[in-house]
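Lecture notes, unit on protein representations.

Consider one protein chain, 123 amino acids long.
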Amino acid sequence: MYISCSFLFTLSPLPQGVGTAEDVLIEILCTRTSEEVVAIKQQYKSDFGRDLEKDIISETSGHFKRLLVSMLTGSRDPSTVVDKAKARADAQALYKAGEGRWGTDESKFNQILAARSFAHLRA
């Protein structure tokens, strides 16, 4: 599958030491299907001769880096069917990981946001 990576030229390739366009990375990785993420990684390698994951690891840090690397795994559920009970359980888990505790459990957010289907996240 060929995906036009013209939007990647805003990253072309990720600038070393200059910082990254975080909003572009979020738009690219958080709004695409798993199949599209895999194609984007392949196209980035083809266009720039570099590994997108390695560039992201090099140019981002902390919880943001972990979220982007999670998104790069391409493990988002493609289903359009929503399990309401699972959605409620995830909502509770996100509350407990954020508002319901002192500090934030970012790993729980990453786990849910990177793996659940778009339909599930909207529910």
